[in-house]
């Protein structure tokens, strides 16, 4: 089975970094996903039908996860679902595992500040990158342009909360 799914839940364990025999880092944690239901007898919402997944994130991406998330955080995870089975002295065991393609906080429950990591290809397009002619930049380091639609609005690279161009749609995607 190799289905792609999206799961919303809470970290049930803190992220833990391990190394494979070839040196590749793997960050893993347990994710608890459940449904909430109103219990009229108790007069409050209760969690029911919990599913638990083992989540694995590889290499530098996993290192970012380990530095960014902690036990209890509410997250959204998209990845490939695998059912791993093995036999024990008590019979067969099966556990659902997610190999992560994308992960992030669930912003219904809080706010976050995104700090982009340095990336050689992406950073080559930023002001002040090697090989850029300094005459093409304005006093603030932003690229100068006579076209008002291409003038920067003051938003920093990766600033999802502000439009990146004057007159542009504020939606970052």
Shape: flat
Q: Helical stretch count?
A: 2
Provide the CATH architecture of the largest domain: Beta Barrel
Written as H for each helix and E for each strand, in order along the chain, the element string is: EEEEHEEH
SS-based class:
mainly beta
Unreliable stretches: 129-169
Q: What is the end-to-end distance?
A: 31 Å
CATH homologous superfamily caption of the largest domain = Nucleic acid-binding proteins
- Radius of gyration using CA atoms only: 22 Å
Number of domains: 2
Strand content: 35-45%
Helix content: under 10%
Strand order of the largest sheet: 1-3-4-6-5
Number of strands: 6
- How confident overall, as mean pLDDT? 77
In CATH, what is the class of the largest domain? Answer: Mainly Beta
Oligomer: single chain
- CATH topology group of the largest domain: OB fold (Dihydrolipoamide Acetyltransferase, E2P)
Largest β-sheet summary: 5 strands, mixed, barrel
């Amino acid at each position: 089975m190799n289905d792609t799914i999206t799961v919303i839940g809470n970290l049930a364990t803190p992220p833990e970094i391990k190394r494979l025999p070839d040196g590749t880092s793997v960050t893993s944690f347990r994710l608890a996903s459940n449904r909430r239901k109103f219990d009229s007898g108790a007069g409050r919402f209760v969690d029911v039908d919990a599913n638990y997944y083992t989540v694995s994130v590889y290499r530098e991406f996993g290192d970012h996860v380990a530095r960014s998330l902690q036990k209890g955080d509410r997250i959204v995870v998209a990845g490939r679902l695998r059912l791993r089975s093995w036999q024990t002295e008590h019979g067969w065991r099966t556990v659902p595992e997610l190999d992560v393609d994308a992960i992030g906080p669930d912003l219904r429950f809080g706010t976050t500040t995104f700090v982009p990591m340095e990336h050689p290809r992406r950073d080559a397009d930023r002001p002040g990158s090697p090989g850029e002619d300094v005459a093409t930049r304005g006093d603030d380091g932003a690229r100068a342009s006579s076209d008002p639609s291409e003038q920067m609005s003051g938003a920093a690279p990766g600033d999802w909360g502000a439009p990146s161009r004057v007159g542009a749609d504020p939606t970052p995607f």
